[in-house]
Amino acid sequence: MVAEQASSDNPQDYLAPGAFVDSGDPGIVAFAKRATAGSGTEIEKAVRLYTAVRDEIRYDPYVHYGEDETYRASSCLRAGRGYCVAKAALLAAAARAVGIPARVSFADVRNHLCTPRLRELMGTDVFIYHGIAELFLDGRWVKATPTFNIQLCEKFGVHPLDFDGRNDALFHPYDKAGRKHMEYVRYRNATADVPCEEIKAAMRATYGWAEGREIIGGDFAEEAEASR
Question: What is the rounded CA–CA span in Å between residue 104 and residue 188?
Answer without folding.
Answer: 10
